[in-house]
Predict the 3D structure of the following.
Amino acid sequence: MDKSSILIYNRKPIDGNCRQVGMNMTKTYDLVVIGGGSGGVRVARWSASLGAKVALCENDRMGGTCVIRGCVPKKMMVMAAQFQSEMNCAQDYGWQLGASTFNWPQLKNVRDQEIARLSGLYRKMLDSNQVDCYLGAGKLLGNHQVEVDGQTLSAKHIVIATGGKPQLPKISGIEHVLTSNDLFELKEQPRKVVIVGGGYIAVEFAGILNGLGSEVTLVIRRSHILRGFEQKAREFLQDQIVASGVTLKTCGVDKITLSADDKKNVHLGDGQTIEVDAVIYATGRVPNTSELNLEAENIEVNQVGAIQADHLHQTAASDIYAIGDCTDRVNLTPVATTEGTILAERLFNDGTKEMNYQFIPSAVFSWPPLASVGPTEEEARQQYGELDIYQSDFRPLKYTITQMTERTLVRLLVERKTQRVVACHMVGIDAPEIMQGVAIAIKAGATKEQFDNTIGIHPTSAEELVTLRNKLDQ
């Protein structure tokens, strides 16, 4: 935690940040929120805007995983990593470019400044809505009370929005590794790195570091990356990642040791040992619930620590709710913020809307990126029965006069009986930007005929979505 955050909360407010709250006071609120990430901030400020007296507890800067050590800073690094590819393409398009070098400290500096600015905006939003902020990790005491930094808060309603945290396996030498959180704090770029994990975080950082010029080895235990995503898209993306220069190992890691010069020796399951500057583990995240004293309110968790909440986000305890990644439902920032809005409306404005988890679009900011909405082919067959599947695999126009060999994949899954488009999966440049619009159509129940009757924008990769005519043989 930076010293400026401590000053903001424990002394006179600076620049309109959260209102100072007197120490050693017991206060009563309509709502106490534990967690200052996207979901927690949303439910706090929205409830306050509806007239509720609200307090929020957070032991770090405002913004949570997404703003501070996740979506936002990661996307900045993704964009930084793409410039080398853009410069290579530029030369094929006639641009005469000189030698280029990448400055890691410079990127870290401007990135950190932007994250500080965004975190400050979150604090200002809370302040403008008269939300009382407490610096510290909130903990349940029972009887609808929360303890934070030695103070006791009493509330009619409590919302838990503590997010998730990286999970590390118990192997020899695990103390020598970095998590995705740690990567953002590195002052120098690791030139040779092993990334362990096959999920979206591992895949994204493999693309980032490879694009920035590091020598990257991605180690997974299964045959393919991104378990849970569309199989054809997984296979297609994996081929593209390997072609871009990332070395892929499908053997796992046995142990990690230090070499004489403080480098890390990664002992792989296939018997090979790789010496690297850094080992980054991205082997999953778990709900950040272990320090909440949930037993004080008899709140149930599952085997990974996820808080069990019903369709209205209520836990086993009356008027205690949980939203966002700590429930391990759909761990996406827009889901947490939407849950927060719906819950605030229900608690303080007689709202009746319920969260709908169908057809939520998502993206992996790999290189190339993957985006999807709707179920995988296997899931769709279980849910809808017979399908018509349309697919296109092509080289984007941008690369046709360059040395780039990267391709794009588009797949539409159509329920045969109704001809409703129930899923779209895409790998390729601009896939996340394209998928947002596709998600609207699929959420609205568009049919394949309606896709076909839509005029495409030419020449674009997106027009493939309305020109797919040939069904795959099944």
In short: The CA atoms of residues 76 and 111 lie 7 Å apart.
